[in-house]
Amino acid sequence: MNILIVGLGLIGGSYAKAFKKYTDHVIAGIDRDEKTLKNALISGAIHKIGDQNDIKNADLIVVSLYPQAAADFINANKDNFKSGAIITDSCGVKRAIYDKLDKSLFDGRVSFIGAHPMAGKEQSGFDYSDADMFNGASLIVTAENPQSEAAITVRNIALKIGFKRCTLCTPETHDKMIAFTSQLPHILACSYILDPLALNHDGYSAGSFQDVTRVAFINDVMWSELFLDNADNLSNEIDELINNLSAFKTALGERDRDKLRQLMIKSRELKEKT
Amino acid sequence: MNILIVGLGLIGGSYAKAFKKYTDHVIAGIDRDEKTLKNALISGAIHKIGDQNDIKNADLIVVSLYPQAAADFINANKDNFKSGAIITDSCGVKRAIYDKLDKSLFDGRVSFIGAHPMAGKEQSGFDYSDADMFNGASLIVTAENPQSEAAITVRNIALKIGFKRCTLCTPETHDKMIAFTSQLPHILACSYILDPLALNHDGYSAGSFQDVTRVAFINDVMWSELFLDNADNLSNEIDELINNLSAFKTALGERDRDKLRQLMIKSRELKEKT
Predict the structure, then answer these.
(1) CATH hierarchy code of domain A2-169
(2) C-beta of residue A214 within 8 angstroms of C-beta of residue B272
(3) Residues A89, A113 contacting (CB under 8 angstroms)
(4) Segments in B10-160 forming alpha helices (H)
(5) A200 contacts on B by Cβ (under 8 Å)
(6) Which of B140, B188, B250 to mutate to test the interface with A (most CBs of A within 10 A)?
(7) H helices within A43-167, ranges in order?
(8) Domain segments of chain B: what residues?
(9) Which ipTM did the prediction report?
(10) CATH top-level class for A174-273?
(11) Within an 8 Å CB–CB cutoff, is residue A172 touching chain B?
(12) Closest approach of A56 to chain B, Cα-based (Å)
């Protein structure tokens, strides 16, 4: 296959390196930054710098841009992709991508399979990309028809480059779950570290402080777009968390040890099951 | 020195093993559970099972019980400790310990140095104790006079058994900081995992979900006591977190990308400094 990676950041760069390491496909890369393109070529992450011909000849196009930019690229090239091409993305929201795409993309000439790799780092950019980034991770695949040939192709290639599994679901389910499993921990890490005591933690903290704050080293440009594209679900999740925190606070205020213990027993049981 | 460890759970057991591994002192152990005592002796964590004579002959007594039990043990034996003995504890709250102790303990015959090792595991009990539990960790020491001979003895021996540093502070500062650095992350982990979506996370989650939920595997008996002994500080910290979460929620509701970015930029700057 001819594979084209659009956007050679942390995720796109990792896709390129993983395809190079684990498959024999021909990998072309596109990026708006000249230096990144040269780095990708020199480091062997891609076989070639992609151009208009590669857009036309690619069997699989992996668009690793932020949501609006991803939709813009796909819409601008919708008539350039070759017949039968499979287009996928790696955005952290899925309803917004489908909403922003030109409806003619779904007329059957090409296939769009929205995907979201459950892998990442606090750092961003090609320099941090890694051929083994996806090892053991899940790829969430939101095909309209999960049994379609295109969806199966995406899943098969994902399993070849390190993903442990593919989770198939609707864009709605994806966005609801990701608000809880990924977006909320990021909001949480930021909210926690905004506490005025954070700067004094040294000498008073251990593992749990580091665990909670790890993802506070956040890319505000990317995450603000992702949060706004999933604002309804994320607001619900923040509410849910505030309600649960408030239950602890109420029990504390009432000096109700039994209530505190019941909340913790339930938490521990849930942790054991997850 | 003759060292007596009272309570051979996760922390007391680790103290015993660390003293055995890194010093030549004679270690006696006391525990209400016969099986634990035998395990400790057979595994070589202690030289001997402690009795009334060891309470009388110990130069250093490390009381590793929950706060009320720790205070009860120390008060019950206040006239048995030998003159010049140093008594320390490992409780996660410090004001409550000082409050519960008989005031005659501070008349100069013995020294009480309240301490809190910033180390732990999700599991509890002697079976999980580890001679290297304290490697690289901080020991918070809340001596009335941090320059006293007893405080210096505690610090010196702590540095010998793996602690990287000793943080000296008042019980008030300890309790305020620990509400933020340790108690709040535990409340947070529980509050987060109480979300109805938690049981469906599989296939939709990655590192940040695991980070936030790690300490939800919680010992409800111990933590409910610690939370109630620090309820004022902990309530303030929950409020602070709810306020910051609410700031994100408000910005989301107003679709205010700039406000979201500002909150995240501030978070990232704080993360960089911590």
Answers:
(1) 3.40.50.720
(2) no
(3) no
(4) 10-22, 34-42, 52-57, 67-76, 95-100, 149-160
(5) 177
(6) B188
(7) 52-57, 67-76, 95-100, 149-160
(8) 2-169, 174-273
(9) 0.93
(10) mainly alpha
(11) no
(12) 33
